[in-house]
Structures are given as C-alpha cells and as structure tokens.
Amino acid sequence: MVQSRPIIPILIAIAAASLLYLLQEDDIQPSEEQSIVLPEGSPDIYMTGVDITRYDEQGQATLHAKGESLTVFNDPKRTVFAQPIIHLIDQEQRTWRITSSIAFIDENDNIDFQENVVATQLISSPPLILRTEQLLVDPAKNALKSDLAVQVTQGQQRIKAIGMTAELDTMGTNIHFLSEVSFVYEP
Per residue in 89-130, pLDDT tens? Predict the structure, then answer.
C-alpha cells in the first residue's frame, strides 16, 4: 500500500518556493525610481556609490576617494566626480580631506575641485581649513592651486586672499597667497 502523506509536505514546499520566486522576481525588476539616468555626452563608464583607493608602486595608499558618482569620458579624456570626498594619504596617514560639489579629473590625474571647496589639513592642531570655489590639486607634485578668492582659517587666525599656491608636506604646508591678502587674528 502506498502512503499519500509524504506528498502533501512536498506540494506545500513546492507551492511556497513558487510563491517566494514570484515575489523575488518583482524585486529584480527595477522600478522607474531606481533606473539610472546617464549624464549627457555618452560616457564610457558610469559608477554610483564610488569608493576608490589609489596605490603607488610600493603598494602604499596615496589617495582615498568617495563620491556620489564617477563618470568617465574617453573622447575627450576626462572624468567627472560628483560630491567627492578625497583624502590625500602620506606614509599611511590621511593628511588632507578635500570636498566639493563636483570635481574634474584630467588625463594627468590632476583634480579640479569646483563649487563649495573645503580642504582640511588633518595633521595639524588646530586643523588648517581652506575654502574656495575652485581648487586644482596635483597629487603627483603634492600641490594645490587656486586663482579665485580663498579663505584660510587655523584656530583664531583667518587669512583672505585672491589666489594661492601651496606645497603640501607632512612637516608643514607652505602657502603662497597671490594678491589682496588680509590677515585677522581674533584673540
């Protein structure tokens, strides 16, 4: 005599698995809210939720970058980075954090930060904070440059100027202001 009891649990398991599959299939289909809208100009690469670390030839981290999106165009060669947060790293220590609304990276890996740029030196106490609307960073030379108005604060010191260049060094930062320099110390 054949028993019919083992078939019922198998049918229930098949029905449950089918239901789960159908529910999961709806999750696989992207909703209109989740669809990605590519930037104009037909990018070659488009990434969201970017988290990148760059290493030198010896395997030491030199730069860590996070951002909302990264768009790479090969013709002409340029990269657009939305909402970047970039840390410059020297001898395994984060030395600078630079943020802005947008940044453009050229074929030489220079980074042109634009709109609401804030560069904070992390190895000084109190931290040195530089604010401007445009800042060009040359990671290979460890240098910063701006031709626009800049404001540098450190503790109770505040310097305003038009344009600046800076050589970044772990021992200290050498900033050269270009014109219209004013200095305020508030005790």
Answer: 877 778 889 999 999 988 888 899 999 999 988 888 888 899
Backbone angles phi and psi of 13, in degrees to 5: -65, -40
The full DSSP string for 101-125 is SEEEE-TT--EEEEEEEEEEETTSS
pLDDT at residue 45, as a whole number: 84
> Which of these, 111, 107, 90, lies nearest to 99 by C-alpha position?
111
**Domain span including residue 67:** 45-185
Q: Does some domain include residue 34?
A: no
pLDDT 10s digits, 108-117: 888 999 999 9
Q: Are 79 and 105 in contact (CB under 8 A)?
A: yes
Number of domains comprising the chain: 1
CA angle at 59 for the pair 53 and 61, rounded to the nearest 5°: 35
> What pLDDT is stored for residue 123 in this prediction?
83
> Is 153 contained in some domain?
yes
Is residue 180 domain-resident? yes
CATH code of 105's domain: 2.60.450.10
Query: Which token pair is 124?
Result: 């000084």
Q: Is residue 26 part of a domain?
A: no
